[in-house]
């Protein structure tokens, strides 16, 4: 019984170490402000990346209404035109 408890404790500590060493969940994302989230994908070999912006959209529903998240994605980086201010700010990769 004692070996089982010691083994379980060691496994729990090992798992906690792996979780503590993981990168933060918000890596590459900005939250708040006028947008729900703004996240950048990995930088490709040509220096470009994909940016996704989520905004709240107002939806009328009978006598009531509600907000739903709406996500827009587009290319960013050298040679890519920023068609919307949501994509242009910041002009650099969020992880940088």
Automatic annotation (TrEMBL):
**Hey, what's the signal peptide range on this chain?**
1-27
Q: Where is the CDGP domain?
A: 28-94
Which InterPro entries does the entry link to? CDGP_dom (IPR056271)
Q: Which UniProt keywords apply?
A: Signal
**UniProt-annotated stretches for the region Disordered:** 70-96
PROSITE patterns, per this entry?
A: PROKAR_LIPOPROTEIN
Query: How is this protein named in the record?
Result: CDGP domain-containing protein
């Amino acid at each position: 019984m004692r070996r089982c408890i010691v083994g379980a404790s060691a496994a729990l500590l090992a798992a906690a170490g792996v979780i503590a060493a993981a990168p933060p969940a918000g890596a590459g994302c900005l939250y708040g402000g006028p947008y729900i989230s703004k996240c950048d994908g990995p930088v490709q070999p040509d220096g470009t990346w994909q940016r996704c912006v989520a905004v709240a959209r107002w939806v009328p529903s009978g006598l009531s209404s509600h907000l739903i998240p709406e996500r827009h994605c587009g290319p960013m980086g050298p040679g890519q035109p920023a068609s919307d201010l949501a994509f242009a700010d910041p002009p650099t990769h969020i992880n940088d």
